[in-house]
Amino acid sequence: MHFNIADVPQQLVNGLTLGGMYALIALGYTLVYGILLMINFAHSEMFMAGAYFGLLWLNILSKQSFFTGSAVGLVLLYGVSIVLSAIMTGILGVLIERFAYRPLRHAPRLAPLISAIGVSLFLQNAVLLWVSSRSIPFPVKFPVYQYTLARDGSGSLAFTVLGASDKIVDKLGQGAHAIVQFSTLQIMIIVVTLVLLFVLDTFVSRTKLGKAMRATAQDRDTAGLMGVDINRIIAITFFIGPAMGAVAGIFSGMYYGNIKYNMGFIPGIKSFTAAVLGGIGNLRGAMLGGFVLGMAEALASGFISTAYKDVIAFVILILVLIFRPGGLLGESVVEKV
Amino acid sequence: MLLTVENLHTFYGQIEALKGIDVEVAEGEIVTLIGANGAGKSTTLKTISGQLAPREGKIVFAGEEIQGMSAHQVAAKRIVHVPEGRRIFPRMTVEENLEMGAFLRNDAEGIAADKEMVFELFPRLKERRQQKGGTLSGGEQQMLAMARGLMAKPKLLMLDEPSMGLAPVVVETIFETIERLHQEGITILLVEQNAAMALSVADRGYVLETGRIALTGTGKELLTNEQVRKTYLGEV
Q1: pTM, rounded to two decimals
Q2: Tell me, what's the ipTM?
């Protein structure tokens, strides 16, 4: 253990970034569970597929000089790639529901679960076979800066922006040290995540279609009596979750610099933990759970050891299941009659 | 006839719950289905509203065959089924529940006007409009379920056991409301275990016994029928 209070702000920034990604994935688990009472174990592969679709579009669009010639072009390059990847992954999610889950809707609950594991293995092996079994570098084509709050050489607070080759002592004088740094990527991830979560939350709580989703989650048969086409709502749910997961997958690729066919497994289980932590079936719970888990993991890896960072998520999962099985924001009774 | 049900057979797996049901409802009528537990009353409503698919038989509504349609397609015909056990959306507010009732409508002004109409019909709901459905009492939930049904502007309103589990004074209110809706010209198909109450408001009634129609007649005829009095009105 090497606890140093001065590291806390930086760990929180890292945790916020990580937590944003977990939150984006976790809401896919929770939306599907809310409506079908099913754990979609193939959801971690939506995160992976999103990253690969994102890379595909980055490679295609980078050939156009419009996207690489200017700062606006670069923003559009990533923006368009993320949107197209989200749409493709969303469609993949809809197809999976249509062909792997819907035929089993009236089967015992174990059947769709096993089908989901099958889909997960299928998708991982499809990428392994057709793309590569190795890590593939995920390009970040724009310059990444460190927005740094620091103490300068004389010990007073200072703010500076560091490029990749800049050293803090060159900018702020001998003895300067950073208090907390936000990289361009972290800012992008946190801001885009918060915007997406806000838009989704507003959609679900305010719009007619969002209300129909909530009604379907609360009482599927009765929602049908109101004129809600249940299959359409389920399809929309299986579009939104994977689309959000895809965005997280691309963020992960940019943040860690590479992607791999099995990259979804660990973040998938952790995000599932986040969904359980928040109260599975509860949208805001999944968002909160994602951030709490991200923070806990960042603090644990900073102060205990990075070797323990995966352990912490599962310790949290076990503790939640023992002491508060409904989750932080969940109903006390999760099971529907 | 607004609704004609002909030779309806519905199964739960291997079990034949409806063994050839014939029911007719004319526009503006209140028709009631009475019978013991398991006679097939709720199954009949569920088959009409598309929650169950019949294996045989025809359901004709306003001249169109609707058997085998899914629930949301039947709802689009403005057949409104207020289900047994109320089934309000527990984590939505009273107002959101009402909005769900109007899900298939797009006339914002008409919806707003109908909301005022049901609030006038059930003032309790207006007081509790921001409260979550699950926090209401049983009687209030029944009012909400009926109000939510009315928000769809029903051509046929099917009520399944509206008096179940409610205090007698609340049952009175519910039945007064049913009569008032009838006077306003709404066609009602009412399923009840409280046969005396149901027959006293109904134009006509059907007595169901184990998936078949055992007896039919006007409300008055059935109320005075000796068989009905013995079996369903608890008289010796």
Answers
A1: 0.92
A2: 0.94
